[in-house]
Design a protein that fits this description.
Elements: H1 3-15, H2 20-27, H3 31-43, E1 47-52, E2 55-63, H4 65-86, H5 91-116
């Protein structure tokens, strides 16, 4: 799976159903590229398109259960990888990581806000 595909699935998991145009902007790709990507992920059973109840002209891209499961599995694999690597650090290095956690959390929040764009 491409990084853009994985990032798109993670965005849908984090933010819920989105328009293709929104996904393209968040992921930094063109709308035609996102349309093609969504088509492939739809054929793989990871996402589905649904109508928007508030605007019948709009189609939203939604995670399927298989897509949500894929995101959870990837996240868990990342957690296990970090657990293993952290286990190889010295006590001082672990303490330095713990001290850095508030700043890292803030960076993640800033990145998330940047990817989601301005609030409307």
């Amino acid at each position: 799976m491409s990084l853009t595909s994985a990032a798109t699935l993670a965005t849908l998991d984090r933010t819920g159903p989105r328009r293709i145009t929104d996904l393209a902007a968040v992921e930094g790709v063109t709308q035609p590229a996102m349309t093609a990507l969504v088509r492939v992920m739809e054929q793989s059973g990871l996402v589905e398109r649904q109508g928007d109840a508030s605007d019948k002209r709009v189609t939203l891209v939604c995670l399927t259960e298989a897509g949500a499961s894929y995101v959870r599995t990837r996240r868990q694999a990342g957690v296990h990888a970090f657990e293993r690597l952290i286990g190889e650090l010295t006590g001082d290095e672990v303490e330095a990581l713990v001290a850095a956690l508030p700043a890292l959390k803030h960076l993640a929040e800033l990145e998330s806000q940047d990817r989601e764009g301005p609030k409307q």
